[in-house]
Amino acid sequence: MSSHLDGLDLIALLDLLAPVPQPSAIPLTPQTPGWVVLGLALLVLAIAALRRVRARHQATAYRRAALAELADAQNDAAQIAALIRRTALAGYPRHVVAGLTGGDWLGFLDRSYGGTGFTDGPGQAVITAPYQSSAADPALTALARNWIRGHNQRVA
Question: Containing domain of residue 71, as a range?
Answer without folding.
Answer: 61-150
